[in-house]
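Intended use. Records like the one below are meant for learning the mapping from a protein sequence to its folded structure. Do not use them to infer anything beyond what is encoded.
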Amino acid sequence: FTFYHISCEYNTKASTKKRDSVETLVGYTWLPLMKDGRVVSLEQQLPVSANLPAGYLNDKNGESKKPLPDIKWVDNAKPLFKLRSHVVSTIYTQDTHLHNFFQHCQMIQSGSQESPADLVKYLKCLHAMETQVIIKFLPTILIQLFQVLTMVTKEHLEIAVNSTRVIIHIVSKCHEEGLEHYLRSFLKYVFVTNKSPSSNSWTTHEVLATAVTAILKQSADFLTINKLLKYSWFFLETMVKSMAQYLLGGNKIKMPRAQRFPDTYHQALQSLLLAIIPHITIRYGEIHEEARNVNVALASFIKRCFTFMDRGFAFSLVNDYICGFSLKDPKVLTEFKFDFLMTVCNHEHYIPLNLPMTFGRTKLQRVQDFISYAVERFGVVDLNLEYNLTEEYCRNHFLVGLLLREVAVALQDCPEIRHLSVAVLKNLMIKHAFDDRYTVYKNQQARISLLYMPLFELLYENITQLSMSDPLGVHSGLPMSASRDDLMFTYPSNQNSRSNTMIDKDLGFSAQNGHVVKREDSRGSLFIDHSAPDTTDGMHRRSSTISRVPPLNRFSQYEVKSLLMCFLHIVKTISEDTLLAYWNKVSAQEVMNFLSLLEICLVQFRYIGKRNIARSQDGLVSKHFAPDRKSQTMPAMRSRPGLMQTKLQQLNTMDNSFTLNPDADVTHQSLLEGNIATESSLIVLDIIALFTQSFKTQLLDNDGHNPLMKKVFDIYLTFLKMGQSEAALKHVFASLRAFISKFPSAVFKGRVNLCAAFCYEVLKCCTSKLSSNRGEAAALLYFLMRNNFEFTKRKTFLRTHLQIIIAVSQLIADVALTGGSRFQESLSIINNFANSDKAMKATVFPSDVKDLTKKIRTVLMATAQMKEHERDPEMLVDLQYSLAKSYASTPELRKTWLESMAKVHVKNGDFSEAAMCYVHVAALVAEYLHRKKTFSSGLSAFKKITLNIDEESAMKEDVGMQEVYYTEEILVELLELCVDGLWKAERYELIAEVSKLILPVYEKRREFEKLSHLYSTLHRAYSKVIEVMHTGRRLLGTFFRVAFYGQSFFEEEDGKEYIYKEPKLTGLSEISQRLLGLYGDKFGAENVKIIQDSNKVDSKQIDAKYAYIQVTFVKPYFDEKELSDKKTDFEKKHNINRFVFETPYTLLGKKHGGVEEQCKRRTVLTTTNTFPYVKKRIAVVYEHQIDLKPIEVAIDEMKDRTAELQKLCSTAEVDMIQLQLKLQGCVSVQVNAGPMAYARAFLDDTKSSKYANKKVKELKEIFRKFVQACSIALDFNERLIKEDQFEYHEGLKSNFKDMVKELSDIIHEQIFQEDMMRSLLQNSMHVFRAISGTSADLGYGSPCHSFQTTL
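Structure written out for the chain above:
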């Protein structure tokens, strides 16, 4: 530094010399830049020298022991100059540790022999560097550290480990500061591997692999390990770049893959992998993010290994890694596994990796024949198909085999895992389909799709799950036309183990030192087997069984549709030869499963309509986007990072794209859905056409009555059941015409089922709103009739004729035949076809067609009435019954209507009536078979079940019978249906009667399992009978008399009376309200009135402006003989057709009067049929009235009271509350009421003479029984009561004694003896059975009393 004195005085007049001396030199001072070999920032005070002698730099700031003699210090060498220096340099560092490290490295490079321990010391000190220093000198530090790594000899591993630790520290600091992009730039632009390592030194990738493995094994230093795992991408990417530069720099890229890297490096990589795996599979819980990061980095690294290394070795790495997982892994580990597979499978040469060239060719031939290899790879498919996930398949196609096996396991896992696995598979297949390299020739895609054929087996195993899912997703309200029951299969697994072995004999994948990796457990072990052949890399993966446990819940729509899309893509892409070869090789069950999948595709991809799509879009938006908005304001991590959710959303973007315009979204989505529906339909149509063409013989087996034909036909019908686009329907109708032409014997000769189902669905199409569809359907129906006519050699088309009538009846019954005018138009089209068909002019065909359309129009007349009464269940069933009755002679049509009635009853919860419909149908078939001499019993066998069964005897032996194809098998199915119906109706006693008809058939066929099941059902039925008899809780219905009045409203129903059977304990008010509501809706609520009175209504005296409904509670009526036959409650509620109700009156015209003037009228009604019947209401045909005089009323009343007491005391468990209520009503009543009122009125000497002596005696006898019943009831009560009711009981007893005393006085005899009663009470149950003669009943008539009182 040079110091001047500056003069501030300036005089213009001064001389030039003076003016030049403004600056006067004062002195000098100096400071060395380097201190201990480095430039430093410091603060210092220096003395100033007046001169600058030679050699002044030797003076170290005046610190030398011998000061220079020539220096003249100003002011006695005081420190006059104070300065502070700050180093700004990209070359010189201020950090001591870094400086020391650089200096030491310089010394090593200059050739001086330094101790390795010193270098380790300096490396350890680098951990103390400040972050800004690291960032400032980042490339320099990293280059130096990598040089140190590769510079050390293999003996000094400690230096490499410590150097790697420093790199870990630096990388972690960069990430913490958010500056990882510097690291990426370093790798991309700066990093260079060492050029030519000597025999004793390592390449960067080798030393890194070894050092990282060593660090991972030092379990004590878990912080460093965690950092290493978290930022593992840097080290693995460095290794990849080093490997690439090593191959290019040493010109090793042209060498065979197996010779590119030394065996030591292969071993180092295997060790590294085995060191990483436990940190993922065991420590994932404590270090979730670290485990996830290393998993992704490792996948990327192994993917790069396929590019640079021996691919067989890379496969072994994949295998080792996957073996680290087990079937019992938690969800997070399975996610890791699929993340890994997704990355590895995204390799650019994934297809060649899975389609190796033919084994056994030399490497030279392979290079020369590269072009022919491409042809060979995508050439004609060998018929030796690989369609199962076998050992052989997984050897030849390792990656795809591995992926499919993991997907197979994942499909049995939780929803998130299923979703992820399906997305990985689907997106991979999408990638193949759009890969420009493989779209030049069609057979290329076919060969790729062939790789995925084992997916079929996976889908078969999950076919139940695929068929159960609701295609509407968020809304399940849309009805499905097709029944899915026929898709439920169970599949025995023919593959118990999933031992995944990959043996590579191709592309130079030679073995590395004969390594064989064997799986003994879920973690893995590695041993060297020197006896193994040199040409084999065997990777034996864990054996495991695909779990048979059902998945946690049903598949989501995304999963189902994605899997089915993959399936459709494969079947569409592979060649026809391949498909034929596949169908010929697999089992019959697998062919059925394949066809079932086609049917499921039609159901799942059906077009559900714009409105439903809009609803599902709303659901998806709220589901996917609402949580996202919320999550922006939520803490970043709750339980674990939401990588899974992010990934699923990424995967879903290919399927669901949302814009800000919801209407545009819905329109776009509707277009997509419509196109998918059409595309899937056309694919299925193509496949089915190929199948029917190739398997015609098998389909026609047994005239088309075989499971295969049924399945194919079901698929054709599914096309009509599911909504199709016009474009697809045009082809569907063409295919159906071809089907009829191809298989006429199946439709017109074999079982009637095919023709029946066909007619039903095509007739439904005849009511379509689209005229094009109606035209096609009408043409198809005409084509069917004409072919039938030709098939019978131009005699008749009876089968089609009958089946069309039956189908129309079914459509009316199901209220599915809407659009009457459109249907009429379709009928006209058919007629026009017949009239204009020149080839048929000379035959009876046109007139037969006209006759058929006329009959259909007649049947259609019922449609309007049914539509009118569709909300009136009784009227609807009556209309259906009248149609069934009109077809009594034609079994098939009668059966149709009875089955329709059963549906209505089941829908309304009337199970007894539904069961009776089934019984009538079964009886119809039994009678048919009996007449054909193929079944032993006819109608007579059903008479014990219902007395109404004679209705089914009206069957006629006419032409209609020729087209009936009932068999013993069909009868047994119907009888099984009866058993089920009777069980639901709680009529357990009848199950035995039905079973008597089924058992001989089972025994004849030796179907022991079914016999066992039926006997078990019988056992349960009788157990139920015992239970309901014991509890008395079975209620088989309540009965009401309902009469209608009002000609202008009820028309032909006016004045008619019916008995209605209502469920369980329906009250009078309940049925009144129901009928009031029903007819109020029909006629207007203000026009309908309920008559509460049970008296006879004079229709002339009622107001014609109103509709009147009279409702009266009635009870079943039995005479004495019937009572003695009907012992149980069930018998008194089954096969009954007489009912009774009572109307009180007096001779003076009032309803009620004193006991001496009270009369009552008993009205007995008889119905046309017995209950239960196929209808809920039966018309009354006969009415009989009995008038009871006052004394007869008394006798009747006293019998009832006595019977009630007897019944209460004869039950196994006496109901104390009910007993006390009845006792109170009998012994503690007011003076002018109750039993004593009857005694005073009719038995007193002054009054008894007015009445017939016989009646007086009968009343006395009843009173004696009544007193005995009260006495025993009192004793029961005494046993049952607790202390708090003792006083109450004494009151009852006292009243009873008073009653007995008064009664004895009235009839002048001792009516009650305590000693006698006490002896009787020793066996009270016996007594009650004796004195009752019959259990108490609500029926009428005199009970037969076997016990006489001793007086």
